[in-house]
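Q: I have 148 residues here and want to know how they pack in 3D. Can you give me a structure?
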Amino acid sequence: MKTLTYILLLTSVAFAGSKELLEKGEEVFRKSCSTCHLESVSPEKLKGIRDVVKSGGKPPLKAPPMSEVSARVKKFYPEEEKFIEFVKDYITNPSREKGVCLPMAYKLFGVMPPIGRTLSEGEKEAVSFWLYHRFTDSWEEFIEKNPH
């Protein structure tokens, strides 16, 4: 019985910590990322944006939506620890060479500014954790819902 109580206590503490980290991550997203990235875009709106781009126009976005970013990064870094490590590094020292975006994304948006340099390690950890857990789709699932 003591073992079960101990396990439940540890689980509760871990869950509370995860919830706090998610909330902090969302706060960092709103403060530092949302000026360029929307959280998500409906499939219909995404199709409309693609149609504008195909006809030679500029997208009405400054950067890809975070739902797409999360799915794309998960294609290359599906494990949480590696995903978070990549995102923390990339937002601090972004480059096309280490990026995982599709070539069209770089053509439309370029490489993001190094906003991670203005964030604390805790903020980078929180926003990376939020990005991993906020969106659950794999790249394949994202593409199925939002054909390119």
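Q: Anything worth noting?
A: The radius of gyration is 17 Å. The first helix runs from residue 2 to 33.
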